[in-house]
Structures are given as C-alpha cells and as structure tokens.
Amino acid sequence: MGTEANLFGVEAKAKRAKAKPAPAGEVQAVIGQWAALFQARFGEKPLVTGKDGAAVKRLVAHGGLPAVLRRLPIYLDLPDEFLAGQGYPLSLMLGQWNRLVALDRPAQDRGRVPDADRTSARMARLRSQGGA
C-alpha cells in the first residue's frame, strides 16, 4: 500500500549526490583571509552570508585551498564594476573562477599554449635548415 501506481511510466529524477564536505577549517581559512583582505582594502569588515560559505565550499572542493587563497587578492583587484558594486562577495567569486585561473598565470604565459616555446624553437631550426 506504500507505493502508488505509475500510470504514465514516468521515472522520478535521480537525486544528485551531495558534494564531499571541505576538510575542517579550509572554508574558515578562506573566509578569514578574504575578510582580512577586504578590511585592509575598504577599511571595514565584510558581511559574510550563507551563500558565501557555500561558494567557498565549492571553490575549495574544486580548486583546492592553496589556489583559492592565491586567487583571493586577484579577485578583489578585478576591475569589474558589477563586482565592485556588489562588494566583491565570495558568492560571486565562484562565477569568476575561470577568469581568475587565466589571470593567475604568469604574464608571459597568458595566451600561449604550454609548449609554444618548444614549437617556436623547432620552427626556427627547420627554417635555418631550409625545411620550412
């Protein structure tokens, strides 16, 4: 009597597996570092919301604590009017992650594929040998 007839043959959606929790202290470390950077820049402590905590949990799970901490100053330095107007909340950092990854690379490496230097050297050798 506990099951109902499925008249239309529609299957229920499978429940999404919950993300693994971030190791203890990592979310707090990111929020603490962000709050310190925010206060140093704007002269006042930021308001931390539940959205911020959830976003940090996802960021740490995806990128790891060292990468998130390294990219916090980059995030606060983004010349983005929308982010500045919102007060650079951690909940919006999640949406900027790919941008932060690109900006985190050394300036000389941005826009170049990892083996570009080796390819350029090989092309120079071929030209000098008359092969290209």
Rg measurement, Å: 23 Å
Number of helices: 7
- Residue stretches low in confidence (pLDDT < 50, at least 5 long) are none
Helix content: 55-70%
Please state roughly what percent of the residues sit in beta strands, choosing from under 5%, 5-15%, 15-25%, 25-35%, 35-45% or over 45%. under 5%
Distance between the termini: 79 Å
Shape: flat
Q: Which structural class do you get from the secondary structure elements?
A: mainly alpha
Kindly describe this structure.
The chain is an all-alpha fold and 132 residues long. Helices cover 56% and strands 0% of the residues. It has helices at 26-42, 50-63, 65-76, 81-86, 90-93, 97-104, 116-128. The mean pLDDT is 84.
Compact summary:
This protein is mostly helical and 132 residues long. The chain has helices spanning 26-42, 50-63, 65-76, 81-86, 90-93, 97-104, 116-128. It is flat.
